[in-house]
Write a structure and sequence with these properties.
By secondary structure, the chain is an alpha/beta fold. 49% of the residues lie in helices and 15% in strands. It has a four-stranded parallel sheet with strand order 2-1-3-4, sandwiched between helices. The protein has a four-stranded parallel sheet with strand order 6-5-7-8, with helices on both faces. Helix 6 packs across helix 8. The longest helix has 27 residues. GO terms for molecular function: ferrochelatase activity; metal ion binding. It is an enzyme of class 4 (lyase). Belongs to the ferrochelatase family.
Length: 368
């Protein structure tokens, strides 16, 4: 592949450091054409679906896209906000607040966000970072637990982008932070805050996004990392083994996926007489379709219909001040050795972002 022309360069300019936060993605709008485009890109990724390409292409274009796009669009419409996609809004805010938090502590680091599928694309954001003079980039997936279906796909996209770049920046990649103390502590605080206001449940479910069981058998560490997160979080909350469960949601197709499945589990608990369950989704750092619609609506209905009395969905970490600080801890560990000192051109924006970070923390405190 022939390298593309490089942006204009001024000798003596400062090489800057950047963090790229990458989330899964979202359609541009909650309508059928937008969702169809998004699903086509997402489900065409061989990391996501490992069925032979010729067979899968027939299924995808002949069955899934024609029939699933409108149904998925209706689901997206049920959680869409006046400002747009919840996942995109939360990711954008996380990036801005992280930049402000780091700037307040003297680290002049650019922080941008991109989506693996949809917009803003990884390609477009990496191009902008290069044009802005960023020659050191730390890629941070929004997925705490590593999987070949998610984190590795981000790396594929990054490496594919640089296959056509002549002057490649220095790169670092965060593989996972499923057991990082800052992440576990942020989850713990979020749950304890919910319990302080709403009381404790009979059972806490930690629902992670599912993947086919075949991936586990082939060596994907995702299942093990989800369970380690569950064990560490339960210990941080002081829970005994009978007070929580790790389950897996979002099963697709007829193949066996990681078990136990979330929806049948909540129905079973209700039938066994469990009156109240709380559900948290530690595999998602931003609320999205899978948490706001699948868990907070569909799974809630499953529990209540089966005889349960009280269902609580505990929101994702989103822009909680503890998580912004936790993201900073994780990033700074991986930035070690790279210069992050303040540079004159960024001071004004750092000050604005730092002020936004302080105002956000104060607003959260007032809400509590």
């Amino acid at each position: 592949m022939r390298p593309q022309p490089e942006p204009d360069y001024t000798h003596g300019s400062i090489a800057r450091t950047a963090i790229l936060l990458v989330n899964l993605g979202t359609p541009d709008a909650p309508d059928t054409p937008s969702v169809r485009r998004y699903l086509k890109q997402f489900l065409s990724d061989p990391r996501v679906v490992e069925i032979p390409r010729a067979v899968w292409s027939l299924i995808l274009h002949g069955v899934i896209l024609p029939f699933r796009s409108s149904k998925s669009a209706a689901k997206y419409a049920s959680i869409w906000t006046a400002e747009g996609s919840p996942l995109k809004l939360h990711t954008e805010r996380q990036a801005r607040l992280l930049r402000g938090y780091l700037g307040e502590r003297g680290h002049a680091v650019e922080v941008a966000y991109a989506m693996r599928y949809g917009n803003p694309s990884i390609d477009s954001v990496l191009d902008k970072l290069k044009a802005d003079g960023c020659d050191r980039i730390l890629v941070v997936p929004a997925y705490p637990q590593y999987s070949g279906t998610t984190t590795a796909s981000i790396w594929d996209a990054v490496f594919q982008h640089y296959a056509s770049v002549r002057n490649i920046p220095e790169l670092r990649l965060v593989k996972h932070y499923h057991d990082h103390a800052a992440y576990i502590d942020a989850l713990r605080d979020s749950i304890l805050d919910h319990w302080k206001t709403n009381g404790r449940p009979d059972k806490l479910l930690m629902s992670f996004h599912g993947v086919p069981k075949r991936t586990l058998m082939l060596g994907d560490p995702y299942h093990c990392e989800c369970h380690k997160t569950g064990r560490l979080l339960a210990a941080a909350l002081g829970l005994t083994a009978d007070q929580y469960l790790v389950t897996f949601q979002s099963r697709f197709g007829k193949a066996e996926w990681l078990q136990p499945y979330t929806a049948p589990t909540v129905a079973r608990l209700a039938k066994e007489g469990v009156r109240r369950i709380d559900v948290v989704c530690p595999g998602f750092t931003s609320d999205c379709l899978e948490t706001l619609e699948e868990i907070a609506m569909e799974v809630k209905q499953d529990f209540l219909v089966a005889g349960g009395k009280e269902f609580h969905y505990i929101p994702c970490l989103n822009e909680s001040s503890r998580w912004i600080a936790g993201m900073a801890d994780i990033a700074l560990q991986h930035l070690h050795g790279w210069p992050t000192g303040p540079e004159p051109g960024l001071r004004d924006r750092m000050a604005r972002d730092a002020q936004a970070s302080r105002e956000h923390a104060l607003a959260l405190g007032a809400e509590r």
